[in-house]
Design a protein that fits this description.
Layout lengths: L2 E3 L2 E11 L4 H11 L3 E8 L22 E5 L3 H14 L3 E2 L26 H6 L4 E7 L2 E9 L5 H9 L4 H15 L15 H19 L3
Parallel strand pairs: 2-3, 2-4, 4-5
Antiparallel strand pairs: 1-2, 6-7
Helix pairs in contact: 4-5, 5-6
Length: 217
């Protein structure tokens, strides 16, 4: 059950990581939603073999959470976590993973997560960016972030383009996102032909153009 916090329902999120692999995401979630999310971190520091036939030593027997987010680096752990979440009836987000079994939502990167009702508050606050622009004489006075990347890049980059000419900001926003994005720039997606950092820049640039098309506030 969600826990009440003032007028909000606090969503209980369990994050699975290895050797602090989700540190930037956890930091971002706490920066922008600490009053609405109750975050529990399940960390694995052990050095693991390439193949795990039995993951029970590292994963819990059950999960008491509204949502699980998988930032594990070992594929066998991610697969078995997906099956465990399916058994427990808990939705799981596993960005960048290729999981054939269990029920897991697997966007290419965190900021490509589309809306899913079952993800609750997390899904409304974090994922594919949504912004609104406040312009005066073609200068960006304020950027309101409705939804953004859990690492915080959406918000940090938004502050950098405030005060800029809108045409310059249109180009600059995606570049600023790359500076703040914490994805591995050396990783390369064979389908999109881009690194996660470049994909993050592109999706934020698209959000900027969408905001301009829909009108400013």
């Amino acid at each position: 059950m969600h826990k009440k916090c003032g007028e909000f329902q606090r969503e209980r999120i369990t994050i699975f990581q290895q050797e602090n692999s989700a540190l930037s995401k956890i930091t971002g979630m706490k920066r922008f939603a600490s009053d609405r999310l109750e975050i529990t971190v399940f960390n694995i520091d052990d050095e693991l073999p390439d193949i795990l036939d039995d993951t029970s030593q590292w994963l819990p027997d059950s999960i008491d959470a509204d949502l699980v987010i998988d930032y594990l680096t070992h594929p066998d752990l991610s697969v078995d976590l997906a099956f465990l979440c399916q058994k427990e009836g808990v939705p799981v987000v596993a960005s960048g993973k290729k999981i054939s079994g269990g029920h897991a939502i697997t966007p290419c990167i965190c900021c490509m997560l589309t809306h899913h009702d079952e993800l609750g508050l997390y899904g409304r606050l974090f994922g594919a960016p949504e912004i609104k622009l406040n312009l005066k004489n073609d200068i960006i006075e304020k950027v309101e972030v409705i939804r953004g990347a859990p690492c915080g890049a959406t918000w940090d980059a938004a502050r950098k383009i405030e005060g800029l000419d809108v045409e310059y900001a249109k180009v600059r926003y995606g570049l600023e996102v790359q500076f703040f994005c914490t994805a591995d720039p050396a990783s390369w997606d064979p389908i999109y032909g881009k690194s996660p950092v470049h994909m993050a820049a592109d999706i934020h640039s698209a959000a900027f153009r969408k905001s301009l098309k829909e009108g400013v506030f």
